[in-house]
Write a structure and sequence with these properties.
The protein is α/β, with parallel strands linked by helices. It has a domain of 173 residues: 3-Layer(aba) Sandwich (Rossmann fold). The protein contains eight helices and twelve strands.
Length: 251
């Protein structure tokens, strides 16, 4: 096992065009940890998720991203993915005509370098679906086509379980979900948590944390981490909102 943190973000600045959005982010996620990044709309949370995965819209102007000790600041998205980074989207795209099992076969082959047969992959997916309590026919549906919010989240949990990323970044994946869909996400995270995997859960709401116990909570505002702590920070945000943190930051 390496002594390096799973993810280490150092003084990260990033812009979209001429607009600076990230203004010096410092954050470390170790193996086996769940981190919750909480901030109001427009604080730069989703920008951070996209920058971590190498989205071309954003330019890193200062700082660096280390994943498993390797500097991936300039690495293309597919390299980061193959190393073991995974991004669960707020609004996953529909891909008509592509069954989930075929998508997973291509993604897992890229991730591992192993050319799985359809049968090998189907057996693996069926095992994972049984563990997650997902009905068998789900794997043959087209990717997110006609899916409810809960089904889209169930699909992303399935992807995480099959691909086994070292780091799963969840970008406001709880946004707009009813309580049943929220529980799907939480149960998936709790089942997939392990000593070699980390989670960075980016959210606007405290309610997901009713079902997941984060090791650290970070308050993210104005493009940087203002403060970090335990679950008491999430409880304070629920009770007081972000105004108190704004006042402390400007004091």
């Amino acid at each position: 096992m390496s002594d390096h943190p799973l993810l280490k973000i150092e003084n990260l600045h990033a812009s979209a065009g001429d607009t600076e959005i990230l203004r010096g982010v410092d954050l470390t996620v170790n193996r086996g940890e769940i981190h919750a990044l909480m901030g109001p709309n427009g604080s730069g949370k989703s920008t951070l998720a996209n920058v971590l995965m190498g989205h071309p819209t954003y330019t890193v102007t200062e700082g660096r991203i280390l994943f498993l000790g390797e500097d991936v600041t300039e690495a293309p998205t597919n390299d980061r993915s193959n190393l073991g980074m995974f991004l669960a989207f707020q609004y996953p795209e529909e891909i008509p005509g592509v069954p989930i099992v075929q998508f997973l076969r291509a993604a897992l082959s890229n991730r591992t370098g192993i050319d799985y047969t359809v049968l090998e992959l189907r057996l693996r997916v069926m095992d994972v679906m049984r563990e997650l309590g997902i009905e068998p026919g789900f794997a043959d549906r087209y990717l997110n086509e006609g899916f409810s919010g809960g089904e889209r989240k169930r699909n992303e949990v399935l992807q995480m379980a099959v691909l086994e990323p070292a780091l799963a970044i969840m970008d406001e994946t709880d946004s707009g979900l009813d309580i049943d869909a929220l529980k799907i996400v939480a149960e998936g995270v709790n089942k997939l948590t392990g000593p070699e995997r980390g989670f960075l859960i980016i959210t606007h709401y405290q309610r997901l944390l009713d079902y997941i116990s984060p090791d650290q909570v970070h308050v993210f505002m104005e493009g940087r981490v203002l403060t970090s702590g335990g679950s008491e920070l999430a409880e304070r945000l629920e009770a007081e909102g972000y105004d108190g943190f704004r006042e402390e930051a400007s004091a």
